[in-house]
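Lecture notes, unit on protein representations.

Consider one protein chain, 355 amino acids long.
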Amino acid sequence: MTIKEIAKLANVSLGTVDRVIHKRGKVSKKTEKKILDIIEKVNYQPNIYARGLVLNKSYQVAALVPSYSKGEYWEIPSKGIEMAAKNFSQFGIKLTILEFDQNSAMSFNKKAEELLKMNVDGAIIAPVINFEAVKLTKKLNEASIPFTLIDSNIKNSGCLKFIGQDAFQSGKLAAKLLCAEIKPKGTISIISVKNNENHNRTLQQRIEGFKEYLYSRPFINDITLVESNINLGSKDFDEQLKSACNPNNDTVGIYVPSSLIHYVAKHIESSALSNKVKLIGNDLISKNVEYLEKETITYLLGQRPKTQGYLALESFYNHLVLNKKIDSEKFLPIDIITQENLMYYDTNLNNLPHS
């Protein structure tokens, strides 16, 4: 159905229907409701190509994400954002990517200030430096700039949409899988290998979910749970890692709540723990895949980061171009990846997994 036909049904002018659809100009509430009821009844879809030509409008979106080296986790959501930008460029969506050093709050703040000066129509934020990201979201709200969050959520931030994994449930799933693989008697180590000392809420939620599962198990009295935090920049990193992997000389399982599980896998492979300890962690990056193929890593939990990036920008297409109502959260499936089903997952960033 065309706008002309809707105008005829509503007994109003073509211009009145156009103003209601595109939210331009004043229309009485009674007339607006009448037109919107007809639009809903006939399931009218606007011609976005024609609208873009008429409005000749562009929308500036900035993405604030961590910098990365090839093969690292943040390459994947960045590729998703770039793919979406290419697909939606024909509708006036223009993307600027601002990369910050995730080891530096100063770097994040510098790029955040750049973003705020850009007069953008929307922003994609990866809030890996939680405290500084909270401050940025407050400034974005004050400036009435809509923003989406990927990877980590910020409670009550006022974001247009969060796209990512339910980190708490991911942790619970990790504990369930690990306990199914081990004789639950001995030590289970939770090892957080970190790039920096900044608080990462996603990792903490995964750990909380992991422990929540163990607390409800009947064998809780038979296991010891040891948590370790190790900074990659530590001078005695190797010694800390060795101690964390086998603190009581009876380790049966290790959980690494981040993409840096390959550091633990490398140590396990060259130690007396090889073939004795089950190892579970997160994210399908190339260094992790190497150890999953050899079954040094038993399970990897995937969170579809490329899809996260794609959907984050797509949300602005829906919000800015289509004027659609946006759901505030999109939790993606938690993929369980093993040596047996690895062949069915894209590890070269060529394809976009279904959401």
